[in-house]
């Protein structure tokens, strides 16, 4: 079993050898550049190879309107913010503090796989291979879910860019790409199903917020806002934009309730504990 753990790149480790740290540095940088450059390139350029319809990322988004169509500006800003934070995560691999490097390396294998799967998704999505793109998203969802529940105690500078940010996007992207993959995605039946499934974003977000993870609530509230804006301009008489903005509001307010005490460095029970302290002392 120990030998298996030694060769398993996804095994949980508290310490890493010098050679493995170098490997993580090289593969993390290369895989991140692959993911970043591919995303930027296909944001502005359409593929010219293959026999299927090729469009930019946002060209596909608006060519196939559905109940999960995203707003280009908001989602692009979300990804820009995430990429910037990921640069910070990568930088921690080069830290002089051993504990910081070990923490960054601990999520490295999953993060590298996420980058490779994101690259594969973009390549398939812009070439209209939506079924295969959906399979890639589902695989990455399991990869990131495993990462989340095995490594959810690391600092926010690792957790947000390497774990919760990609996980939130992948969860929403499964619906986004899945709605495009379904025939007649703009039909009444498809929109009714979209009106139902959109609430899973709220349930999913509240689950993590109840677990005191405000980063997931923030990520999903931004992506819900993107969904709401796109749906408002797509079909203002539909219910989807109302649902999306409702979900955004609930997630954002719930996130603030959790985040403010965390930022202040004290829990919500602190005031009540302070009130009981004199009584305990008197006894």
Gist?
The protein has 13 helices and no strands. It is mostly helical. It comes from Cercophora scortea.
What does this 3D model show about the protein?
By secondary structure, the chain is mostly helical. It has one domain (2-265). The N and C termini lie far apart (53 Å). The chain contains 13 helices and no strands. The model is unreliable at 272-283 (pLDDT under 50). 38% of the residues are buried. It is globular and about 55 Å long.
List descriptors:
single chain; 283 residues; mainly alpha
Secondary structure elements and pairings:
Layout: H1 2-7, H2 18-44, H3 57-63, H4 72-92, H5 98-106, H6 108-125, H7 130-150, H8 156-181, H9 188-197, H10 199-210, H11 214-234, H12 240-264, H13 270-282
Helix pairs in contact: 2-6, 4-8, 4-11, 6-7, 6-8, 7-8, 8-11, 10-11, 10-12, 11-12
User: Helical region count?
Assistant: 13
Overall pLDDT: 86
Query: What's the β-strand tally?
Result: 0
State Rg. Answer: 21 Å
Q: Given the C-alpha coordinates, what overall shape results?
A: globular
Query: Strand count, sense and closure of the main sheet?
Result: none
* Uncertain ranges: 272-283
Question: What fraction strand?
Answer: under 5%
Order of helices and strands: HHHHHHHHHHHHH
**Cα distance, first to last residue?**
53 Å
